[in-house]
Amino acid sequence: MILMTTDSFALLRYRRKEIAAEVHDLQAQIEQLLAEDEELASAEKVLLRFGATPSEPVARPTAEVTSGKPEGTPTTPNMILALLREAKAQGKPGLEPKEMQITIAKRWWPSVKSEDVGPTAWRMWKDGRLDKEGSLYKLKVVFPSAELIHRADPELAEWFDSNSSEGKE
Fold this sequence. Notes:
Blueprint: H1 8-49, H2 76-89, H3 97-107, H4 114-126, E1 130-133, E2 136-139, H5 146-152, H6 154-168
Antiparallel strand pairs: 1-2
């Protein structure tokens, strides 16, 4: 509608009504977009929960990015163990802390720092939970005790006993 007047107040009021109508339309669009964003965030959480791995870092609005670990993120030791299991399954000898940090940032914790991963891996190694070769951290290789072998597979235990006594003579 074109307003044909020279009254300044009428022109101002008309323009303000146009602005109010446009704001109302934009607010409706914003509400629709926010609702869709919530739905997509829920879908993303479901995919992550069922083990899907994003090919790129999980997108989070910049307002939500903090220096702390996101809610629901596994503990750093559990993330490290999961990554080392995956690396072993892929035939890799182990992972360096920088590789762990990059993957953790992509999968769970976008703002993770090297200080969050390296010292934790080192403590896990010192506590005997990981093996370390140079700068590579690896899953701890645990050999079963003789008692456990005897309980689990007596036939195998008998074979070990007979072969180990031959080597001692």
